Amino acid sequence: LDLSNCSLHSVPPGLAEATTAIVLDLTENPLTTLPNGSFLGFVHLQSLAVPLTLECPGGSGAWQDVTVDRSSRLCQGQRNPCNSSVELAWPCPENAVCAPDGPGLIQCLCDSPFHGYKCLREGTFPMLLFGGILGTATVSLSLLLWGTQRRKAKTP
Questions:
Q1: By residue range, what is the domain housing residue 73?
Q2: Which residues contact 124 (CB under 8 A, 6 or more apart)?
Q3: For residue 58, which of 67, 69, 42 has the smallest C-alpha distance?
Q4: Membrane-spanning residues where (predicted)?
Q5: Which residues have C-beta within 8 Å of that of residue 87, sequence separation ≥ 6?
Q6: What residues form DSSP beta bridges with 55?
Q7: How many domains does the chain have?
């Protein structure tokens, strides 16, 4: 994805839709910062060129090779933060596994059959019970309202 020399002053909002990009060039743009989360979901990104004034997203530790030339910084080979020997600042909960989510970013995915907040709920959502209670309550309330309000609906 070549966005070089596009007079970008900030990261375009549509960039979030290009998460499958492998190569991205943002050089020759008057960018001042790369907001945190700009590259959320960019797990396939292997080469990123940014203006010299900017650092590589996630820091130089998120990339295997950072090369600086006269006008740009080239970040190559995105590292998997889950495989690093450095302890993660926020480890995943007990029933979850770490997965990369972009340069220097991680996400915690629940192991099956766990789900919900901090992967604490086990099993699946009780759809039959939920639907049965909701349906019964709806029918009961409808019959009650129909029975009490039908005398007011009669024509004169």
A1: 13-79
A2: 113, 115
A3: 42
A4: 125-146
A5: none
A6: none
A7: 1
